[in-house]
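REQUEST ID: PR-0412
SUBMITTED BY: lab tech R.K.
PRIORITY: routine
TASK: structure prediction, single protein chain
INPUT:
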Amino acid sequence: MSINRNQCLKGNIPKSYIEYQNYRDYYQSFIQGSTVIIPHGVTEIKRNAYWGCTSIETVVIPDTVQTIGDRAFEGCTSLKDVTIPNSVTELGYAAFRKCESLKSVQLSNRLTKILLGTFSDCKCLSHIIIPDSISEVGMSAFERCENLSSIKMSPNIKEIQQSAFAGCSGLTNFYFPKQLKTISLSLLNGCSSLQEVIIPENVSEIDHWAFFGCTGVKRISIPSGVTRIHTGAMAGCKNLIRLEVHIDSLSKIRDLLYCAGVERKWQITLSVPVGTELSLSNNDNYRFFFRFKKIVADLDP
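STATUS: complete
OUTPUT:
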């Protein structure tokens, strides 16, 4: 059985893509010039459905669609904007990866996760609102979105996986959800326009290279609950001026920052809680803290 594009657009669609020789033909029958109009009644856009369709500029998704599969629109380099209706509960990995002209996205408020590489390499994406339904942002979800300058973050996010926002060189600020417990590997690696990093109270661990190459950062604030900072977490933050550590023991601060990548030539002021003993008589303390321009006890205890 063959069904032409006009029949599909009038709603006389096959019950299943099985009626086509392959499901790519089924989905691509909905293309009109540079526009994709998915007919009402379709519930799923399967994986790879529009992979590499470089001529598509607009896609219209009806509120009957519940699932957008893995890599469904990957490599649609001319796609400019997309609205994912609230009927969608599953958005596959790399679904919009390498949509290099994509400027705006409206996400469904029924999604709970943004998966691996969903919007990575969307170089024109300038802003994103992550709905309150989201609790997890996957690895490399927005990696190398170079023009991403504004993120409205869901306060309900409990996990942001490694490199999720790495290479977002247009970001000037980043809100860490309060429920986060770990700053993951290379999370903001290469975010060169970021101005400051304020880590929330619940965080206990900062992983390797978390802020590597954040050359615009001038201030980092670390709460008292952080017990481990991995190698190179702050390496390359060469314009860092003020490092605030809310721990009232220089020995504990030394152990915490020992491998973080802080360099003497940066001329950093280390700020610690009021009442902290600032004596450097301990040889280990002296050797380590020599790398700071000065140490001041000016934080609220």
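NOTES: Confidence is low (pLDDT under 50) at residues 1-20.
REVIEWED BY: pending
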